[in-house]
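For the sake of transparency, this paper describes our internal protein records without simplification. The remainder of this section carries one protein's record, kept here as part of the documentation:
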Amino acid sequence: MKQKFSKEWKSSKQPRKQRKYIANAPLHIKKKLLSCHLSKELIKKYSKRNIQIKKGDKVKVLRGSFKGKIGKIERVFTKKSRVYIENCQITKNDGTKVYPQIHPSNIVITELNLTDKKRKEKLEKKNG
């Protein structure tokens, strides 16, 4: 796979080209792709279906071995497009605990971290 990102690329029906675009995208574009669905209550409140994920958001896991667990986002790993969640930990054989990497498509935001002024204004602007 070529390690070049094309700015002219619009879209393709081929999944391999879509994967290539995401894999080779620079971090400022990958960050925009790291969005996640909001819960039903938040959709009604902000009249928005999804939002970019941020550290401190409270989320619920929908898929995988941690299905149903609720916790805060501990870290957003933009380079690999993954998220670490507070209550979801795996104990390794040597006893250390590690966070499994969860993709944002497998979680839903139940409570937003509104400490960022820009994020708060953006949500209120959309609602108002």
In short: The longest helix spans residues 117-127.
